[in-house]
Amino acid sequence: MIKFDEIKRAVLVSIWFMFLTFPIMVIRVNPVEHIVEWRWKNMVLVGIGSFLLSFVWNYLMKRKELGSKEAEAGEETIKISLFHRALNEKKIYLPALVIFGIFTISFPFIFSMYQTTIMVTALIYVMLGLGLNIVVGLAGLLDLGYVAFYAVGAYSYALLNYHFGLSFWIALPIGGALGAIFGILLGFPVLRLRGDYLAIVTLGFGEIIRIILENWNEFSFGPSGIANIPRPPLFGMDLSVHGSTTYIYYIMIVLCVFTIFVVNRLQDSRIGRAWIALREDEIACQAMGIDKARTKLTAFSLGATWAGMAGVMFAAKTTFVNPASFTLWESIIVLCIVVLGGMGSIIGVIAGALVLVLTPEYLRAFSEYRMLAFGTLLVVMMIFRPGGIIPNVRRTYKFESVKNADKS
Amino acid sequence: MLKLKNVQTFYGNIQALKSVTIEIAEGEIVTLIGANGAGKTTTLMAVCGVVPPRSGEISFMGDPITGMEPDKIVSLGICQVPEGRRIFPYLSVAENLDMGAFLRNDKMEIKKDIEYVFDLFPILAERRHQAGGTLSGGEQQMLAISRALMAKPRLLLLDEPSLGLAPLIIKKIFEIIGKINAENNTTIFLVEQNANLALKVAARGYVIENGRITLTDSSKNLLANEEVKKAYLGL
Amino acid sequence: MEPVLKVQNLGMNFGGLRALDDLDLDVCKDEIVALIGPNGAGKTTFFNCITGIYPPTDGDVFIFARDRDMPERINGLKPNKVTEKGLARTFQNIRLFPSMTVLENVMIGRHCRMHAGVLGAVLKGRSTVMEEKKAVEDSYTILEKMGLAQFVDEFAKNLPYGAQRRLEIARAMATEPFLLLLDEPAAGMNPNETQELDELIKQIRDKEGISILLIEHDMKLVMSLSDRIFVVDYGKKIAQGTPEGKKSRRAPRKR
Amino acid sequence: MDYFLELFLGGLTRGSIYALIALGYTMVYGIIELINFAHGEIYMIGAFTALIVISVLTLMGMNGIAMLVIAGVVAVMYSSAYGYTVEKIAYKPLRNAPRLSALISAIGMSLFLQNYVLLAQTSDFLPFPNLIPDFEFMEPYAHIIGSTEIVILITTAIVMILLTILIKFTRIGKAMRATSQDKTMAMLVGINVNRVISVTFIVGSATAAIGGVLIASHVGMINFYVGFIAGIKAFVAAVLGGIGSVPGAVLGSFVLGWTESFATGYVSSDYEDVFAFLFLVLILIFRPAGILGRSEKNKV
């Protein structure tokens, strides 16, 4: 039943939005030719649209409140853990994993090269997301300049190849190592900074790297970038474009599995515990004998290592790098992947990367509106599902399970 | 004057208050005692509307105030001195007092009341231009009480005024609490962990355990009660 | 009696404020020493100076570690280094890691006695696995001693208040200290819990051989526990003595 | 010397504009501890609204400084309305959520507003008429400072003074200060915290709109993306000064303005931003909470 109050509210909302959008939606100006175009139709659309959306919004808000009520009554725990229980239930997750594995392996043969290329991009973002997840999700350090390390990786392959003819397989670890070194370089001065100060300094660092790449022509060839970067070779064979895309796809799969493996191990280790403790209380952490500086630097450099390797992959995939690929927006998108997917949750970050990279790609049909939709998605997700797509339920150390394992 | 009926509140997944019922008459000093985390502070925050109850009713002077915005509740004459004092650290003592009178417009009266609280706590007059954050714990407690008095409350809620203070200062603060009640007929609802002190100044008391009121009686009887003695008086 | 901690002429300035002034204090082996005084007297600042949270402006802090006969100066060391040397502390307002389990909290205390690095974590070799297993066992043993074993898998934030205070002590003990610094351990405890704490602290001293320096307002607890008492006010030491001698003298200065 | 003075005044002008935008950042941050990423877009919408009003009024035959004033007033009105609405939709439901969630929501809002203007208007740069006449008395100094710059400096000064009065002496200003220090306590003394937050967004958006109109007439063109870049700069300025501090935002803006101006003038314009960011990093190393920021001493 829709109540009178709600209708009144919706009418007010719709009037407010008609007023709000009036100059920008209705009037279009062309100051060059002195033309002013009046689009009254838009006003009607905004009015009707906001009238209807007001109901949807109210309904969702009510459900959100109800949802949290249920959670408080202890029902939500069952709902959440259904998914996580599935993860722990061998009968369910093993077959799922097998099916998923077969699907991933056969992907390039089922779908077109175009699809494979998109998937490679998505996988690069999976890697970036998992790397940033170490910094933001585990250690709780807000890094807005993550793209800098991505750029370091990409340019190190491009430049090493250009000057010394280094091959992809040598450049990959070097890119990772250079990323780590830059991570430490950035980490040192910002160790004392907290929260948003850290965010802005890392942001600045990202911009500095980009601007230097753009302007230092002798070093980086400026805005025009470096072209003709070789794709990864396979035993000296020259692969066709199609073949090498498939090849890169498999390299990416292997790298992603490797990343997941490493991040997973790190999470459950002495260092992983220290990160989480550091996120919760720095002072108590130090009082417990944890070296704050070292622990933070480890997080920074590990995160940067993955960005560096992802950068090498990016250069190898596109065969061309220029500074325009490493803007602040890239950092923001990677951060969105981590938060939207579910901070600290590996599956969540993977899901986040796939959603955020693939959605805009497949929304190309509505290309004009896709960024608008993307922005809306971010806002709506954060309001109605703040934990992310797959919220992290941290595996805690269960003492009994350790004990039982001893006996068996 | 104040009535809580079957009030329940939640923080996230945890139920903080489980069906709390309390009644306070005008002019009384009533205390609520209990252990850390039993729900004392939550009860006060529920009355002030900061933690709105999920169910149950709260009424003040016969009118329901459940779910009202905190600022509306304050304007009715309910004022709280919260746990940990919560002085505005970068405002001066005078400005802090000014904030207490935020909802009032009677400049002359406000001036008089400032004189009154300076009379109660002369040390505050000395420090009127000092930033609130630089005061010592005891001075901050005095300032917090004064700030609440600046609102001319009909019902004053005090949350652990003795917390972290040296015994002599505690004694002084409790004397003043009695004085405020006697001089202005201000009703006082006192939450304390220091049951001994609280039951001496209050006429009646409630005991809260794990979000439930488990006992209510006159202070005299509570002081004599074996359970209370064992758990809260350390005898 | 051989000392484990010796503090000489310790001074601390915050801007123009002299928070600590020429403070001397020492703790001997197997001793429980109490530091008392009114609010704002500088007790917690004293703790912070010793444990490296603030570097003291002047004076010296010496420790006499078990396995070394030479005193060691620890002024200005980072807090984590101080902890490594064998001084562990708790906080006035409990600072646990709320969304880690009880066991994990104690395991964080083990951190500085463990060695596994990034590579160890990734490769998960034999030594890492063994170390991890040992850390779990050691932590559980400490929890048992502190009477917290039943909470082992609970989140720290869900523990009752008294248990949180004890967990903080357990976490500090996991760092294998020779001196434990307790900042108002009984604050906010009811008389029953305080009684239990009294026994617990004595046990830690007697069974573990850990010396204890504590700040406390609850005079009953101080009198029952401590071998010696130091009284500070305005950052200065104004008296020191043993509990019996203390009682006859007047209570600390009023404000 | 003239060159130095020119750069100095140029830096001051830049700084003034950064300050107008940075104030919004810092005020919002002071109250709800949120980096309002969409703040730059509010400024851009202010500039666009002004351009639309000017175009319409020009068609109706109006001209000169009166038109600029009308455009400015409408821009301020609309920017405030947008700021208010953005807060209600994207931030208020997240009041108790983790801070990172609110930040992502702000980023989403920023993206939305950019593309909203892009779709409803155009992606091209549009020329923005400079309606500030060349003052005759400025003639002898024209090589050092132009009329537009003078107007910018004076307007900024007036806005700053008004804002200081608002925060220091008015009732709502006191409520703002109290809210920024302790939200729960502010509620307990009877402050309507939601209203204070709304007012903060409105005031911050209004100053941003003034900045938007001024910079648009200074630079002479706008597009949907100008808000993002200016927003980042202003944010840097706010952090430089100590985010949450109003005088800090102003000081940080001037410092940033001068750094850029001198770096451009004496070194190279290519690396203007590099210098700005390096300077930021340097200052934060020595003063981790910014020039005038309160270094939060973590109570142990």
Would you give an account of this structure?
- The complex is a heterotetramer of chains A (408), B (235), C (255) and D (300).
- Chain B has 235 residues and is of the alpha/beta class.
- Helices cover 40% and strands 27% of the residues of chain B.
- Chain B has helices at 40-48, 70-75, 93-100, 107-120, 122-126, 137-149, 167-184, 195-201, 219-224, 226-233, and strands at residues 2-11, 14-24, 29-34, 55-60, 63-64, 78-81, 155-159, 187-192, 204-209, 212-218.
- A 6-stranded mixed β-sheet of chain B has the order 6-7-8-3-9-10, with helices on both faces. Chain B has a 4-stranded antiparallel β-sheet with strand order 2-1-4-5, with helices on one face.
- In chain B, helix 3 (93-100) packs parallel to helix 6 (137-149).
- Chain C is of the alpha/beta class and 255 residues long.
- Chain C has helices at residues 43-50, 79-85, 102-110, 118-123, 126-145, 161-173, 191-208, 219-225, 243-248; strands at 3-14, 17-28, 32-36, 58-63, 72-73, 87-89, 179-183, 211-215, 228-233, 236-241.
- In chain C, the strands form 2 sheets. Chain C has a 6-stranded mixed β-sheet with strand order 6-7-8-3-9-10, with helices on both faces.
- In chain C, helix 7 links the parallel strand 7 (179-183) and strand 8 (211-215).
- Chain C is globular, with a radius of gyration of 19 Å.
- With 300 residues, chain D is mainly alpha-helical.
- Chain D has a domain at 22-225.
- Chain D contains 11 helices and 2 strands.
- The longest helix of chain D has 31 residues, at 2-32.
- The radius of gyration of chain D is 19 Å and the shape is globular.
- Chains A and D meet through helix 1, strand 1, helix 2, helix 8 and helix 14 of A and helix 2, helix 3, helix 4, strand 1 and helix 9 of D.
**CATH fold title of the largest domain in chain C:** Rossmann fold
Low-confidence stretches of chain C: 246-255
Determine and state the CATH class of the largest domain in chain C: Alpha Beta
Strand percentage of chain C: 15-25%
Oligomer: heterotetramer
Residue-averaged pLDDT of chain C: 85
Query: What's the order of the H and E elements of chain D?
Result: HHHHEHHHHEHHH
Strand order of the largest sheet of chain C: 6-7-8-3-9-10
Net shape of chain D:
globular
Distance between the termini of chain C: 36 Å
- Name the strands of the widest sheet of chain D in spatial order: 1-2
Largest sheet of chain C: 6 strands, mixed
- List the domain count of chain C as a whole number: 2
CATH architecture of the largest domain in chain C: 3-Layer(aba) Sandwich
Question: What composes the largest sheet of chain D?
Answer: 2 strands, antiparallel
Order of helices and strands of chain C: EEEHEEHEHHHHEHEHEEH
